[in-house]
Amino acid sequence: MNQIHFFSLTSTFFPVLFLVFFTFLFQARKVTAVDENFRICSVPRYCGKMNIKFPFFIQGRDEPRCGYPGFEIHCRNSSLPSISFGDGDYIINDIYYHNQSCHLSRAVSFDKYAICSHSIRNISLPSDRFLLPSLQNKTFLFFNCNLSSSRELSRYNIHCAAKNESNATLALFSNDPMLNFASEYCDTRVVVPVAFTSGEGSLEGILNRGFMVEWITSNCSICEASGGE
């Protein structure tokens, strides 16, 4: 009778013990993998003097698991890091990890020729990873504008060579009350985000000072504080 009872208990609890054992083993291996990732990726990484941390990783130097897909950056000759978007490359001047933002500027500087030749394009941010701060200023560049129909817009003319009143190029800032009016007399426009306002220097200087972007990923500070646990 006791022997039968023993075998009955064994047949009842063995599957439970088996499940508990393998659950423990799986969790232990999972924790080991997390610890290994944290150990590798928590090592300080620099591009020039800039500390590179999650979600960014240096392409060709860091393991992709140390960053987030789409946040790979380039570090050439220990200079400032750069990142590529659909419309070109951008220099990362500063990274502010505490509020998930960074200060960018175009890798190829703005000059009068680039503006007047219409070679500037709208910034193409991947919307699932980056966004522009809502209160940030913008510069609107209008092309092929007909000033003969509106003399009021003449003060925005940047006077490109070989341009006349029927195909002028204008520059206005986002807070200008004439912005909508200018749209009626110009064919195309390009919007350039800027971290500064009008009156702070030349148009080229303002554009070359860059702008701010914010990134969209989970905040890693809790993981860092816990040592990856």
From TrEMBL:
One Pfam family from the record: GUB_WAK_bind
Domain annotation Wall-associated receptor kinase C-terminal: ranges: 170-228
Record-level GO cellular component terms: membrane
Keyword terms of this UniProt record: Glycoprotein, Membrane, Signal, Transmembrane, Transmembrane helix
GO MF term (any one): protein serine/threonine kinase activity
Location relative to the cell: Membrane
Membrane topology classification: Single-pass membrane protein
Catalytically driven reaction(s): L-seryl-[protein] + ATP = O-phospho-L-seryl-[protein] + ADP + H(+); L-threonyl-[protein] + ATP = O-phospho-L-threonyl-[protein] + ADP + H(+)
Primary location class: membrane
Domain Wall-associated receptor kinase galacturonan-binding: 41-105
Enzyme class: transferase
Domain of life: Eukaryota
EC nos: 2.7.11.1
Signal peptide: 1-33
InterPro entries tied to this protein: WAK_assoc_C, WAK_GUB
Protein name: non-specific serine/threonine protein kinase
